[in-house]
Specification:
With 396 residues, the protein is α/β, with parallel strands linked by helices. The longest helix has 28 residues. 39% of the residues lie in helices and 14% in strands. The protein has 2 domains: 131 residues, Aspartate Aminotransferase, domain 1, CATH 3.90.1150.10; 242 residues, 3-Layer(aba) Sandwich (Aspartate Aminotransferase, domain 2). Helix 2 packs antiparallel against helix 9, helix 3 runs parallel beside helix 9 and helix 10 packs parallel to helix 12. A 7-stranded mixed sheet has the order 2-8-7-6-5-3-4, sandwiched between helices. It is built from 12 helices and 15 strands. The structure holds pyridoxal-5'-phosphate.
């Protein structure tokens, strides 16, 4: 008889968003006259920018004529997009060859699939609080997880632990949920640690486009030594509004080897076996993101979300509430005032000012007592929510 993967039974129910949905539904049922201000969503609200839309339309038209039709494409990505991404890195001083860039259907897919490169016996270290997919993908693979707690005392950016035996290290910067961003020295400490121990870093850079502080690294390859210890996983979801369109990319340097095995070559083998690549049409749309026009347009959208972040952090400053993030990230991570618990604060905001956020404890134990606001909503709703927050918290 088939024996199922028993590790599925070890997964914790992702009750966070279900519980939020349940609570908001119950509130609206009891107060049908009210509307909610949603600062909990992790999805973007701005449409794809005009440069991308135009490229997508053109690519669809190409598929309509025999002379311009495209069938199967190279599994690791079409050369024009791999080259455009490598040039994008070069503009920041990071030299990559285009065959170190792999086009993907998004960061989530890659965060799961990439685990094929590693033996199950490798323990995986994750900084807590963490994006829930890291934990779940490792649980499914039956991998041991080492939780590294973080907190306000280290700005949610802990240093490598000297005594851990992790072979895989998940780093996310700018971080979801905390919005914290590693500086060069902090990231260098992780790179040195991985090179010393032989671990491999999975660097999730899904939010790098939100970094506006020039001193902060967008890519782990801005750090000396990263090419021998890190894989970078990126996404066009939050930078260019591709959450529903689906496109991302992963970088695996040629120097990344363990036990004489070349991880770049292994990933080529994996992709050519397990996928037939990403849609040609979407890759045309993705390439438009890396044109000067596309960059200008996506940065206008990012600026709008960052203005939302400022609206929220200004409100928190006025109330004297501690937070991280917001400046180089679309998330603001705050300490619940007056020692309140995450769910207690959630209920207060929902019932008193109709604002919905995300309780921090949903991202791991260290998130207890913290709360996440996302900045992907409309400026009008964000401004109204911020005003309501100030009125509520300044009366307490
Ligand atoms: N990594 C982090 C930290 C995220 O927050 C998200 C989405 O919210 C993803 C990866 C997934 O991105 P994608 O839409 O490319 O799958």
């Amino acid at each position: 008889m088939m024996k199922p993967n028993v590790h599925y039974a070890e997964l914790k129910d992702s009750y966070l968003f279900a519980r939020i949905a349940e609570k908001t539904k119950a509130y609206l049922a009891a107060h049908p006259e009210q509307r909610l201000y949603r600062l909990g969503i992790g999805d973007v609200t701005q449409p794809l920018c005009p440069a991308v839309i135009e490229a997508l339309h053109q690519a669809v038209d190409e598929q309509s004529a025999r002379e311009t039709f495209h069938g199967y494409q190279p599994e690791c990505g079409v050369p024009f997009l791999r080259e455009a991404i490598a040039e994008h890195y070069a503009a920041r001083g990071v030299k990559l060859s285009s065959d170190e860039v792999f086009v993907s259907s998004g960061a989530s897919d890659e965060l799961g699939d990439i685990l094929d490169l590693f033996d199950r016996a490798n323990a995986a270290l994750m900084i807590e609080p963490a994006y829930p997919a890291y934990v779940d993908a490792s649980v499914i693979a039956g991998r041991r997880i080492i939780h590294l707690p973080s907190g306000a005392e280290n700005g949610f950016l802990p240093s490598p632990p000297e005594d851990a035996d992790a072979a895989l290290i998940y780093l996310c910067s700018p971080n979801n949920p905390t919005g914290a961003v590693f500086n060069r020295a902090q990231l260098k400490a992780w790179v040195d640690y991985a090179n010393r121990t032989g671990a491999v870093i999975l660097f999730d850079a899904a939010y790098e486009a939100y970094i506006s502080d020039d001193a902060l690294p967008h890519s782990i390859y801005e750090i000396d030594g990263a090419r021998t210890c890190a894989i970078e996983i990126c996404s066009l979801s939050k930078s260019a509004g591709f959450t529903g369109t689906r496109l991302g990319y992963t970088v695996i340097p040629k120097e990344l080897e363990r036990d004489g095995m070349d991880l770049n070559a292994m990933w080529v083998r994996n992709r050519t076996t397990k996928t037939n690549g990403v849609s040609y049409i979407l890759q045309r749309g993705g390439a438009a993101v890396f044109t000067p026009e596309g960059q200008k347009q996506i940065h206008e959208q990012i600026a709008l979300y960052k203005q939302n972040a400022k609206t929220l952090t200004d409100a928190l400053d006025r109330c004297g509430v501690w937070y991280t993030g917001g400046k180089n990230s679309p998330y603001v991570w705050l300490r619940c005032p007056n020692g309140m618990g995450s769910w207690e604060f959630f209920d207060l905001l929902l019932n008193e000012i109709q604002v919905v956020g995300t309780p921090g404890e949903g991202f791991g134990k260290c998130g207890e007592g913290y709360f996440r606001f996302s900045t992907f909503g409309s400026p009008e709703d964000t401004a109204e929510a911020a005003e309501r927050l100030v009125k509520l918290l300044s009366n307490r």
